[in-house]
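Posted in: Structural Biology > Protein-Ligand Complexes

Title: Requesting predicted complex, S-adenosylmethionine in pocket

I'd be grateful if someone could produce the 3D structure tokens for the following input. Sequence and ligand are given below.
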Amino acid sequence: MAERIKIATPARTQAILNKYGLRAKKKLGQNFLTDGNILQAIVQAAAVTDQDDIVEIGPGIGALTEYLALAAKRVLAFEIDTDMVRILAETLSPYDNVQVLEADILSVDLKTVLAASLPSDQPIKVVANLPYYITTPILMALVQADINWSKIVVMMQKEVADRLTAQPGHKDYGVLSIMLAYYANIKQAVQVPRTAFNPAPNVDSAVVVLDQQAAALPVQEPKQLFSLVKACFAHRRKSLWNNLQQRFGKDEATRDRLKTALAEAEIEASVRAERLTLNNFTQLYWALGAAGFYSEQRP
Ligand code: SAM
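-- Reply #1 --
Done. Output follows.
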């Protein structure tokens, strides 16, 4: 890294907030990172090089943005809070490769904005200390946006990180793990104590790395597949058979069609959804399509 890092120390963070007469806004999930080692570890987890274009969500006062600006080619940061955007105009003024957009990340059309603000043939990387109150919607929006990305490296509360990275059979394994596994290979990279922030959150955190990976069994309508997965987890402690009848109906004709689909997908009716892999669900989805429950079938 070429230059001295200025923003992310406990004293400097507090001084910046004081200067602007501001406090972290809880409702916007504002917990500012003040630990340079953690920031360095995030940049490393994203393997940021000077060839990379980075999208950051929620730059706050610019702690992570500064590290990214020093390591990457360009940084495009989305910040919802006008007060933060005002601060960033000062804290990031030394960096001419950073652009801050005042916007709600959940309302922007990422494809259009990226085409205008970060034109490139190269895939982008997303690197962020996320606002925890919208971690899941942000991740789903990113993976479902029609954009070219190679890595998403994001800090979130540890409990959510555990759910995202859980494997079949684990108590944390569920809808979220399966939906994200459709788009990416996911792992935890850095464990972060609450003392690394100002103010300290009530929970510990972890950095999760998503490496873009095409699904082994791609479907035409991922949202339909995910709605099936959700239905199968509707009553987690109950069998797949129970949940499928709950979703599609209990009359004899429906039960016969469900049995045919399960046999075709080679899945035991008595199993619980938490035992099934993403590929199991896709096979079941296609078999249910063949039985007339969905419009899509095995290609
Ligand atoms: N990146 C900074 C850091 O690491 O110190 C701040 C991270 S803080 C956990 C989350 C940031 O996301 C805050 O600056 C907050 O204002 C911003 N934010 C909250 N909701 C947002 C949204 N919908 N769109 C964009 N930014 C948002």
